[in-house]
Amino acid sequence: MKPSNAISIRRWYQRPRPLSAPDGFEDKLSQSVELLRVAAAMTPCVLAHSLSAEDMVLFHLIATKDLAIDSIALDTHRLPVATRELWRITEMKYGRSIRSVAPLDSDLATLAAAASDSALYTDKSVRELCCGLRKTQPLRMVLVGKAAWVTGLRRAQSLGRSDVHDQHFDAAFGLEKFNPLAHWTDDDLWYFVDTHRVPVSTLYDRGYASIGCDPCTRPIRADEHPRAGRWWWEANTATGTECGIHIAATNTN
After folding, report:
1. Is there a contact between 174 and 14 (Cβ–Cβ < 8 Å)?
2. β-pairing verdict for 148-150 and 175-178
3. What is the tens place of the pLDDT at every residue in 8-54?
4. Which of 44, 72, 145, 204 has its CA 20 to 30 A from that of 101?
5. Is the model more confident about 204 or about 158?
6. Is residue 16 part of a domain?
7. SS3 173
8. Domain limits at 143?
9. Strands 148-150, 167-170: parallel, antiparallel or unpaired by DSSP?
10. Cα separation of 132 and 139, whole Å?
């Protein structure tokens, strides 16, 4: 037998494009809207908006249902250009602002003194410090005085998020936490996006399945785990690597 000269091609990830509503979708949608109404009643309540597809769905529901939930987004100073453009487009389309929450200059100075940007890839403690100062600490400050916050966490995102609750008390930040899309599958998410023409990042059409800061996110291959593109140089498993924002809360469930 002659050896094959064929080259095995690993295709890039392509997001789902379901043409019909997944089974049980309408019930899930109704439950999500009702959960958002419960969250809105716990004033003040905020959506922690990462400009992900999940958060775009939540933002769309909050805006179209005119719910009293403000939106904040963490401007880590390392956001991809596509994320910043989506931020601008979203505010224009819905007529609602997304409040920018940035790290303190003193914290950025601390980070710069601790290590260069390249140390992210060689020392996990530096990466964790970066995530802590750019994301967790600013979020902690903005959540002070809030009664509840809303996130786009879904159980289908990783094994590490498989026990995400619809609603629970977040002991890490000291307030009620709502995850209205906890039960949504990938098909549920993208069916809603396409049906309602919800704007999403152009990076999803370039092989990205999960989008974070520019230095720490890459496209993935079709056979990789959806969160394999986050902090890819670290040991990734199906549990998914986390920045720290949701770890403590998840462990208290």
Report:
1. no
2. parallel
3. 567 899 999 999 999 999 999 999 999 999 999 999 999 999 999 99
4. 204
5. 204
6. no
7. coil
8. 25-251
9. unpaired
10. 10
Catalytic residues: 243
Rounded to whole angstroms, the Cα distance separating 104 from 96 reads 25
Please indicate, yes or no, if residue 196 is contained in any of the structural domains.
Answer: yes
> What is the helix (H) or strand (E) element at residue 249, kind and residue range?
helix 247-251
CATH number at residue 211: 3.40.50.620
Residue 17 domain-assigned (yes or no): no
The closest alpha carbon to 59, from 43, 76, 69, belongs to 69
CA 87 – CA 85 distance, rounded (Å): 5
Phi first, then psi, for residue 25 (nearest 5°) are -60, -45
CA 28 to chain centre: 19
Q: What is the pLDDT of residue 161?
A: 58
In this structure, is residue 206 part of a structural domain?
A: yes
Q: How many domains does one find in the chain? A: 1
Cα 11 off chain centre by: 24
Q: What does the block give as tokens for 72?
A: 């904040």
**Under a CB-based contact definition with an 8 Å cutoff, are residues 211 and 79 in contact?**
no
